[in-house]
């Protein structure tokens, strides 16, 4: 196979799934239709890179438009320019003088960058014929560090320090790879605990997940104190005292309200409270973390943390005990590597956010590299798992016995089936047309 040399086209498609019909993914503030802006990069040899960014419905078209606005910076670019200095290319994309005004490095434009960068990683993996985790693991520290833009974080992490961390962490990498290939990586499930599910359904799903081998569970909270008490008592009863339980408020509370709300719930032996308040409130998170520490409850956040700068501050201010990188909220693999390295320096475990569309597919690559080449441990770490929409991917994530298995196909596992794209493209896809005609949905 000849190696591609240039990006010849970028196509973006608005893909949405009607998950709100059954309250999948519902929480104290969201009632989502899981969606993604899906990017296809074409090259001169026909090899394609596919990537996406996750949104939850209306608004997906805005991200698609933003991706279109970056097209001119990607199409016609030589792959040697991109992969020969990926950190520089990433910087160019995120610092484009006219687009930058809309961020910088946050919100819609950063989600758009993530989709493009994710597609570029998928393409790179395919060119090298390796899954992305293996591609990363096969790079030396001197190759990894130039992938990262250190602007705004050099007060906490310099390129030299990053090289040192990566060098140290190479010891034993082959044994860890063997263990990852044999036994994968621990997962927790959120599938049983969506806020819109009935108690009977929650019970049934808890039992089912336990039978499948899950020992860690996450439940949504934050809408009503009485409901939270009832649901947590029920879930604790179903899963028993030995299983790990986390809760997620999806930014529902003010700072003092979060502390007050959480105190009575701590009797259910909770590992963490996730997103207790605004994702931007670094000091608020620190206040909550300090107040709940005596109860053994940590603070987790990150799925809405817009960039490496916010993670830097959360780490500096001890605002989080569990760092939840998101493969699409941050600007793709390059920026995520910076966060993994900072978290390692501050000794905070990374437990990636997943679920949505394709997030599970991606984060196993990232967390595998953390295990192989950065933190070198799975201790106190776990990846979120949600049992939805995997059937739309060409290489869906494999989870068995409550553990993620190592992806083996080349790329970033982000390629979706053409048949699924045709059904769920919004609004023209056949599935959407059916839902409109049956009156189950109205066109947004
Ligand atoms: C709207 C989404 O389903 C969120 O509820 C989800 O990402 C959640 O916060 C999670 O941690 O999985
Ligand atoms: Mg969450």
From TrEMBL:
Which lineage ranks, top first, belong to the organism behind this chain? Eukaryota, Metazoa, Spiralia, Lophotrochozoa, Annelida
Annotated membrane-spanning segments are: none
Pfam families the record matches:
MR_MLE_C (PF13378), MR_MLE_N (PF02746)
Gene Ontology biological-process annotations: amino acid catabolic process; carbohydrate catabolic process
Q: Name a GO molecular-function annotation.
A: L-fuconate dehydratase activity
Specify the protein name: Mitochondrial enolase superfamily member 1
By sequence similarity, the record places it as follows: Belongs to the mandelate racemase/muconate lactonizing enzyme family. ENOSF1 subfamily.
EC number, UniProt record? 4.2.1.68
């Amino acid at each position: 196979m000849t190696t591609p040399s240039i990006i010849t086209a970028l196509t973006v498609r608005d893909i949405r799934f009607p998950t709100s019909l059954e309250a999948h993914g519902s929480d104290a503030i969201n009632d989502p239709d899981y969606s993604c802006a899906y990017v296809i990069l074409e090259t001169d040899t026909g090899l394609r890179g596919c990537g996406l960014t996750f949104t939850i419905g209306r608004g997906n078209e805005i991200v698609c438009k933003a991706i279109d606005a970056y097209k001119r910076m990607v199409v016609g670019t030589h792959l040697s320019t991109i992969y020969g200095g990926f950190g520089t290319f990433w910087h160019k994309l995120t610092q484009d003088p006219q687009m930058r005004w809309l961020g910088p490095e946050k919100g819609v434009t950063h989600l758009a960058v993530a989709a493009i960068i994710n597609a570029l990683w998928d393409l790179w993996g395919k060119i090298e014929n390796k899954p992305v985790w293996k591609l990363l693991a096969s790079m030396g520290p001197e190759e990894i560090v130039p992938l990262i833009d250190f602007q705004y974080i050099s007060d906490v992490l310099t390129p030299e320090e990053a090289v040192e961390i990566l060098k140290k962490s190479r010891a034993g990498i082959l044994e860890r790879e063997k263990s990852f290939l044999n036994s994968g990586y621990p997962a927790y499930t959120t599938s049983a605990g969506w806020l819109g599910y009935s108690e009977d359904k929650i019970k049934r799903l808890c039992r089912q997940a336990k039978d499948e081998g899950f020992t860690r569970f996450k439940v949504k909270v934050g809408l009503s104190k009485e409901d939270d008490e009832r649901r947590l008592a029920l879930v604790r009863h179903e899963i028993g005292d030995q299983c790990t339980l986390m809760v997620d408020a999806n930014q529902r509370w003010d700072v003092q309200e979060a502390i007050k709300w959480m105190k009575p719930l701590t009797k259910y032996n909770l590992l963490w409270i996730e997103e207790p308040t605004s994702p931007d409130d670094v000091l608020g998170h620190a206040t909550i973390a300090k107040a709940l520490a005596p109860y053994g409850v940590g603070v987790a956040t990150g799925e809405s943390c817009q960039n490496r700068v916010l993670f830097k501050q959360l780490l500096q201010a001890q605002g989080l005990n569990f760092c939840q990188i998101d493969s699409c909220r941050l600007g793709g693999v390059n920026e995520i590597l910076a966060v993994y390295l900072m978290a390692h320096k501050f000794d905070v475990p990374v437990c990636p956010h997943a679920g949505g569309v394709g997030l599970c597919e991606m984060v196993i690559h990232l967390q595998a590299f953390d295990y192989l080449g950065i933190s070198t441990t799975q201790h106190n770490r776990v990846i979120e798992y949600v049992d939805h929409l995997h059937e739309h991917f060409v290489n869906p994530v494999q989870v068995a016995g409550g553990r993620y298995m190592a992806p083996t196909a080349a790329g970033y596992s982000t390629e979706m089936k053409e048949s699924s794209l045709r059904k769920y493209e919004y609004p023209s896809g056949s599935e959407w047309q059916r839902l409109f005609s049956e009156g189950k949905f109205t066109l947004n």
